[in-house]
Design brief:
Elements: H1 6-24, E1 31-32, E2 38-39, H2 41-57, E3 62-65, H3 70-79, E4 83-90, H4 92-96, E5 103-110, E6 113-121, E7 126-131, E8 136-138, E9 141-142, E10 158-161, H5 167-175, E11 182-183, H6 188-196, E12 202-208, H7 210-222, E13 226-228, E14 243-248, H8 251-261
Parallel strand pairs: 3-4, 10-11, 10-12
Antiparallel strand pairs: 1-2, 4-5, 5-6, 6-7, 7-8, 8-9, 12-14, 13-14
Helix pairs in contact: 1-2, 6-7
Organism: hydrothermal vent metagenome
GO molecular function: inositol monophosphate 1-phosphatase activity; metal ion binding
Enzyme class: hydrolase
């Protein structure tokens, strides 16, 4: 299978992010969508730029972007054709609030499977990439993260989005002594990448949309990580659906949390 030139993809994404996202960061206007989420002019400008360039270089692949209508997104997924899954600005609330945690996320889906993932963090100039079966890379260096040692099964840092988890699980997390420290930086794309790089030890999220996890879960998997949804299925299923996620790089710690959460085998 001949995939797009990832070096060319990296270049066009980096240039677009630097020219659009960094230029407006710190003084961007914003408004609210119907679902209550934040959107900025940079979201639309970045998506338009990526759509134009991706169609120019690789016209045979369709485009599914966060800022498209749900009907348009569903039509792409149901077509059965290959497509780019784009989040032009993941972490928009951070971006609008002048918090430096946001990224561009792109995945290439072929035959309902992730084949290529790229996430670019323009603030730190970090670009994470993965091609299925070829490992994951950070700034062209292959990620080779050896398993860490954990005391009493307590991760050093747990990246947890509490508000989207089932209430019973959220209460259990805050009342039992199960982790040493908890964070939520507000960008699913960065979450997956920082998990891949070993910066977080446990990841728990109750509801991500397709463009939030399409690239990131591939990068994490190619880095050697373990993940599963809270209903005991693969996080990515090639559908336009909201998915939960439990992820960990260390297999023993993953198994411990899997049992502690009480994920039931189907």
């Amino acid at each position: 299978m001949l995939l797009p030139d990832i070096e060319k993809l990296k270049t066009l994404v980096k240039i677009a992010a630097q020219e659009i996202l960094l230029k407006d960061f710190g003084h961007s206007k914003f408004e609210y969508k119907d679902d209550g989420s934040v959107v900025t002019p940079a979201d639309f400008a970045m998506q338009d730029r990526l759509e134009t360039e991706l169609k120019q270089h690789w016209p045979k692949h369709r485009i599914l972007g966060e800022e498209m209508t749900e009907a348009q997104q569903r039509a792409v997924v149901q077509s059965g054709e290959s497509y780019w899954c784009i989040d032009p600005l993941d972490g928009t609330s951070n971006y609008a609030a002048n918090l430096p945690f946001f990224a561009v996320s792109i995945a290439l889906i072929i035959n309902g499977q992730q084949q290529l993932g790229l996430i670019y963090d323009p603030v730190r100039d970090e670009i994470f990439t993965a091609i299925k079966g070829q490992g994951a890379y950070l700034n062209d260096v292959k990620i080779n993260h050896s398993e860490m040692n954990f005391a009493e099964n307590k991760p050093i840092v747990a990246e947890i989005d509490l508000k989207r988890l089932p209430e019973k699980l959220s209460v259990k997390l805050v009342t039992e002594n199960i982790f040493a420290s908890q964070r939520n930086i507000g960008s699913s794309a960065i979450d997956w990448c920082w998990m891949a790089a070993g910066r977080f030890d446990i990841y728990l999220h109750g509801g991500q949309k397709l463009w939030d996890y399409a690239a990131g879960s591939l990068i994490f998997s190619e880095a050697g990580g373990y993940s599963i949804s809270l209903d005991n299925e693969a996080v990515f299923r090639g559908q336009l659906e909201v998915r939960s996620a439990l992820a960990c790089y260390d297999k023993k710690l993953f198994d411990y949390w899997y049992k502690w959460i009480g994920i039931e085998k189907q």
